[in-house]
Write a structure and sequence with these properties.
Blueprint lengths: L2 H6 L5 E3 L8 H9 L3 E4 L6 H14 L5 E4 L3 H14 L3 E4 L7 H13 L3 E6 L2 H10 L3 E5 L5 E2 L5 H11 L4 E4 L5 H9 L4 E4 L1 H4 L8 H9 L5 E4 L7 E4 L2 H12 L2 H12 L2 H7 L8 E9 L4 H10 L4 H6 L7 E4 L1 H8 L13 E7 L4 E9 L8 H6 L2 E11 L7 E13 L2 E10 L1 E4 L2 E4 L10 H28 L5
Parallel strand pairs: 1-2, 1-9, 2-3, 3-4, 4-5, 5-6, 6-8, 8-9
Antiparallel strand pairs: 7-11, 10-11, 12-18, 13-14, 14-15, 15-16, 16-17, 17-18, 19-20
Helix pairs in contact: 2-3, 3-4, 4-5, 5-6, 11-12
Amino acid sequence: MNRVCEVLGIEKPVIQGPMAWISTAPLVAAVSNAGGLDVLGVGFAPEGFIREQIAATRKLTDKPFGMNAIMIPDNLEHVTKIVEEEKPPVMYADTIAGLDIDLCKKYFDIWHEAGCRIVVKASFIDDALIAAKAGADVMIVKGWEGGGHVIFEATTVLVPQAVDLLELPVVASGGLADGRGIAAAVAMGAEGFEMGTAFMAAKENVVHPNVKQEVLEAGDMSTVITGYSTDEPCRQIKNKLADELIAIEAENSKAVAAELLRPVAESSLKKAMMEGDMENGAGYLAVNNKSPGVTLEMMKWWFAWHPLETLRYKIWNPYCHPYAAIADVDRAKIQNPNVPLEDKIVDVVHFVVEDIGAGMQDVVIHFRPVEELGFTKEELAASHCYAIGGYGLVENREGAKGKTPAIMLHFYRETADGIESRTRFWMGYRIVQGHPVCVLPPGIRVPEVVPMGLALHNVEEFSHLASILPGVYQEFGALPL
Ligand SMILES: Cc1cc2nc3c(=O)[nH]c(=O)nc-3n(C[C@H](O)[C@H](O)[C@H](O)COP(=O)(O)O)c2cc1C
């Protein structure tokens, strides 16, 4: 056992670096269960998401894992509140240039007090020295070969210097993709090895399979560094987005480029990781349910209210609905009192874990205006209907490649004895520029068992909802969302 293992309480000195939208509970638990240390990539995530990810990880592993924190004052305040309560085994100070000794010392002391070990990732030797002085337990030095944010120096330049200058155990990061990279790092004196990109192709990772394929096929000229104008350069796959960013930086002054870059790059990682073209599908499902005692008003309220926290989402039926997340912008829309109740669900995205009939799966649901599904509000009003719909992406189970898209439509109509709901799913379809389009490869069909499982799930979830909704609405319906 070497010093990295001893300090972090792990069996193998391998760290999977945090990756936003990628290193979430399933991957983190898999790496930690295998004896390494994985780190939740929750740098700028909202508080609810961070707490849920910690809880979800703890359900899957009792081994040490970490969570990252960006070393900027505003962020540290809210993260540290979570750390004091949740006590993650390891805190991981994210790469940032120009560490401040007082800031580091203040928060490292609090994290230590909460029982955490502290790992710091630096891209400059000066920063590594500051972090060591402030009390870090393990030092990662990351060269510009690495994925994600990088600065100027190579791993081969940083590691030997860090090993010579620091008493702490040093972990090498950046460009170590396999045993050869690790052997080189050992030769340079590293006692631990951090990797990110290599884990993107792991089967436990929930990113879209296209991303995994791209990583496997990448060669020496497949990545590029963008964003020098923002002082937060980033190594990324060369693609259309990268071309766009490079063009902006080439054509503008540094300050102007930095301003122009942000909206283009914002959320791009999340989009790439969570979405993608479908690779599988085909099936149709129709189910009708009755919900006595439920009104249309309750249904509209429910769809706005339930995704805002996992706990509320679980109320739907805890056995099938263990987890939900929603972006801040969507939460703000739902909680805006000026947005009418029935519009709150439109254009928002739910990220959920749900058993839709074939075991727990990651499901991303994009709720869209009903007009995109061929219905007008007037038509629906004339039939006393409320409809919600959109398209979803379901992570396929092990063995089946890709995510299956589906268009989903729920109609709710008030009758004398409660709500009548009609649910329709078209598997293998998604909405493209406002139209439902079948995106199946020729000859592929979803096995019948999938719509059958979904049909049973649908009956279960709506009968469960019918039994709880009047009570939940009575208790919470008058409160602000
Ligand atoms: C897609 C992607 C996203 C990343 N996101 C983060 C992040 O949010 N915070 C962080 O500290 N590092 C992030 N990293 C960097 C990794 O934690 C790790 O330092 C790096 O991937 C190591 O280099 P390698 O990719 O050559 O293995 C990211 C890396 C990748 C590839």
